[in-house]
Amino acid sequence: MTICTGIICENREKAIAVADRMITDDELSIQFEHRETKILTISKNCLAMTSGSAFFFQEILEPIIKKYKNESPKISKIVEEIKNSYAEIRMKKIEDFYFRPMGLTINQFNREQSNLDDRIMGGLVRALQDFEFPGGLQILVIGVDDEAHIYLVDNPGMSTPLDTVGWGSIGTGSPHADYTFISGGYYTEFPFNKAVCLAYEAKRRAEVAPGVGEETDIYHIDKNGIHKLSDKSKEQLKNIFEEKEKLIKPIEKESMERVSKLSLW
Fold it and tell me: Are residues 78 and 64 in contact, defined by beta-carbon separation less than 8 angstroms?
């Protein structure tokens, strides 16, 4: 439950990250807007955002942040490490949830499969195949090396490059954000200011989805590093969005009035 979106612009020279601040965990029945941003700095040229449980991503990302926080590596290298860490922590959770209560480790299971009851064997194999982090977990990675990149990392520890599409969205608000980019005619050559406006609009339209908060953080990355959008700039984007809405609503109302007068069939 969230909205996190990344977008490439300026002929693939810049990338933009936008996220809400809503923290959700279904198992603990909590949902609140946090004071801290969801946009995590991985390195001097890379950011990551997560959807799903508010807790499990820390184990996956913290070692990578510690390793690269003062470096500017290739984004593909960071993604490979995030993907591997995702798979490793996933296997650890499977072992903790399913194997250890039976007095087994995964290594013991691999050695002793032939000695296990078929029903137990089948259940453990299903756990290995089907396990997802409680609440699900997706990680959107954006960064700039020679050019801007976007990747999605998700279950069971696989990465999907999104550079060709040029944007990625995760969370319950993602369909609304995706539609905004499509209807807005987005392409990777979008000028920076226009791209920021569209990314902000995508986040605002995603707020109708359950679990999406009203607070908004916006960062961008270029070859000079990571930059946070100021509150003043966000206020300007808010004014532009709301002025656009004021223009659209009378047109929509007029259209519906014309539709109500149609003689159909």
Answer: yes
The CATH number of the domain holding residue 149 is 3.60.20.10
**Cα(138)–Cα(180) distance, rounded to whole angstroms?**
21
Which pair of tokens denotes residue 182?
A: 């499509």
Residues 190 and 147 in one domain: yes
Distance, in Å, from the CA atom of 40 to the CA atom of 34, rounded to the nearest integer, reads 14
pTM: 0.89
Count of CB atoms situated within 10 Å of the CB of 192: 14
H/E segment holding residue 227: strand 225-228
- Residue bearing the bigger pLDDT, 68 or 260: 68
Q: What is the pLDDT of residues 187-196, one digit of tens each?
A: 999 999 999 9
Q: Taking CA 202 as the corner, what is the angle to CA 44 and CA 50, rounded to the nearest 5 degrees?
A: 45
- Residue 202 CA, chain-centre distance (Å), reads 13
Tell me the two tokens of residue 235. 């206020």
Dig out the tokens for 48 from the structure: 């990551």
The CA distance from 74 to 82, in Å, is: 13
Q: CA Rg, the chain, in Å?
A: 22
Q: Which domain holds residue 256?
A: 230-260
For residues 50 and 66, what is the distance between their CA atoms, to the nearest angstrom?
18
How far is it, in rounded angstroms, from Cα 67 to Cα 261? Answer: 65
